[in-house]
Fold this protein.
Amino acid sequence: MPVYEIADLLHDAHQALRRDWPQDRTPGIQEALDTIQRSARSLEGWAPDRQYTPTADDMFAIHHGVALAPYGDDSSCLALGYIDRELMVQAAEEFMLDLTGEPLTRRASHRARLVGRVRHTWAVYWRAEDRDWFDFDDDQRTPGSVPVTILPGD
């Protein structure tokens, strides 16, 4: 298996652990998260000079004044800054319609469910020669972290 695939697997495992145990800060869990993240970054050729503060230019589009980018494979959206939940859903609906040609939701009841799924967190933005990505982190003390708003997909 190529090294970059191993790095991607470690990165995905790190994200899954943070999602499944976001409030668990016990030393064992935290140590495992840190080890996985360090391993993934070392395999990716991580260097501190690849960390950037994202701007609207780094995002895919702006809708309703919200700078948006897709992430993952399930129609998830990410916005820079802490965005009002209703505004995030409005912007994401237009963004996904422009991006995929498909609306996020067709009924008002689904729209209310989307509003409830919006969450605010912190992320670190990384750039490499062939790609860029966000590492999600619930801690604003992480160097280089910026506030983001996420609308998880299905």
Observations:
- Residues 49-154 form one domain.
- The chain has a mean pLDDT of 77.
